[in-house]
Design brief:
about 45 residues; mainly alpha
Length: about 45
Amino acid sequence: MSPEAEADLARLLIALLEGAQVLCRAAGDREPFERAARAVLAAVPV
């Protein structure tokens, strides 16, 4: 993966987690974060 692609992926992951945090606070539940984590694990090759 190129350095530019790595930086783009890092920004995407940060935005995803920040959005999940907002949804968790609004819902008063951790489920949005759990969904985001599952989506990341499914989408990003490890």
